[in-house]
Write a structure and sequence with these properties.
By secondary structure, the protein is mainly beta. It has one domain: Metal Binding Protein, Guanine Nucleotide Exchange Factor, Chain A (Beta Complex). Strands 6-7-8-9-4-3-10 form a 7-stranded mixed sheet. A 3-stranded antiparallel sheet has the order 1-2-5, with no helix packed on it. The longest helix has 7 residues. It is globular. The structure holds zinc ion (ZN) (2 copies). The site of one zinc ion has 9 residues, from loops. The site of one zinc ion has 6 residues, from helix 1.
Length: about 140
């Protein structure tokens, strides 16, 4: 287990580490074009936390892109090994997304929603019991 923390994680090379001190506010999987490209796979799996509960050690590089609604998503990655670690959206300034694949233990992860299903590749098979949306539903935007 993660001891005193809710969760811990790190990038592939270990240059960036993080600790999380409370449970996520929500969890989701996104198949949008940007998440597919940055993950190199069929979707991104993200757990969203209050920023005050996530402590990051190590420098990240980042890339900004604009969402369909005009907000800016800043995706952070390790400058050395390229692992995708965190995401921030300027429409939800107190929230940080953590990529589920970089967690040391992620047995607790369960997506509450699958978004941008219309961009899902045929080969990326999802759990049909998870609420699924063709685009980004308004209540989840922030
Ligand atoms: Zn790294
Ligand atoms: Zn996305």
């Amino acid at each position: 287990m993660s001891g005193e923390y809710f969760a811990t994680g790190h990038c592939l090379c270990g240059a960036v580490n993080y600790t999380i001190s409370a449970a996520p506010v929500r969890m989701g999987q996104c198949h949008c074009d940007d998440c597919r490209r940055t993950s190199g796979t069929g979707h991104a799996s993200n757990a969203f936390f209050n920023k005050k509960h996530v402590r990051i050690e190590g420098e990240t590089s980042h890339y900004d892109s604009t969402t369909d609604t005009g907000s800016i998503i800043t995706r952070h990655f390790c400058p050395k090994c390229g692992s995708r670690l965190f995401g921030e959206n300027n429409a939800a300034a107190n929230i940080i997304a953590v990529t589920a694949g970089t967690l040391d233990e992620s047995h607790w992860f369960k997506a509450n929603a699958i978004v941008y299903n219309k961009r899902k590749p045929m080969w990326d098979i999802m759990d049909e019991n998870i609420p699924t949306f063709e685009e980004m539903p308004a209540p989840l935007e922030k």
